[in-house]
Predict the structure.
Amino acid sequence: MMKFAKGDPFPSTADGVAFNKEVREYYHQQLGSNDPIVVQFGRWLGSLAHGDLGISNQPGSRKVSTIIAEALPVTLQLMSLALLTSVIAGVAIGAWQGAQRRSRAQRTSSAVITVLYSLPEFWIATVLLFLFAGVLHWFPAQGMSEAGVTFHGVRAALDRLMHFVLPWLSLTLVGTAIFARYQQAAMRDVLDEMFVRTARAKGVSESSVLGKHALRVAILPVITVGGLFFPALLTGAVLVEKIFAWPGLGRVLTDAVASRDYYVVTGVVIVGSIMTAVGSFLADILREIYDPRLRA
């Protein structure tokens, strides 16, 4: 798809510097981008079979694996914490909504969750950036740390935390809404099951009915959603990282698309595919651990 889109990885002008036709042709030969696309794809597959993701066409000619290795841990920090807080908050809110049927508080919270569920991460990120960084000046706008300033110890940790809050909150708000909606629907279905009625008929306290009986079964669909949501966070992080200039994999991908850096784009896509497989695998394991009936 990148190949069929308009654009040139070596334009006639880049960063204010003009390149003549001979220089551009030299770079195209080095990259092999003048060969038929089938030949390029076969050559890339051959390199991939040897664990080589290729070389970036940007200045420096760095290995794609090196670029991804530097950016991936930064993205995983953001994604893992966003996933953890989204699951905790979403399950708690959704379970409470499922138990509190037709109350005013439940209807109000459901309306808020529905609004958050329908909003894309980049729109929420833009609003948070404008409000908390542009208007209130509570948090810094971009980056992982204050540019041009070196902090140490506790001050460095606080500086990193302040830069972390807004991108993390952008992903967490949407994730919480997703998990809350699934948890609410699952909780409502489970509360109508016979084993819940039996527990109540035996005189089991309502907190035990909800926490030990209903939630244990109702959380299973949420575990499945969590396994699928983990790689989906990478999609949301792409534009969120771009908005906040967060130096993670999402920003690497957007910059690579803009500069037609084909090997970097395919490398990030491979990482996303691996994350999808890992997320589904972990979800299957957690479901069997949590529900002995699946192991049987």
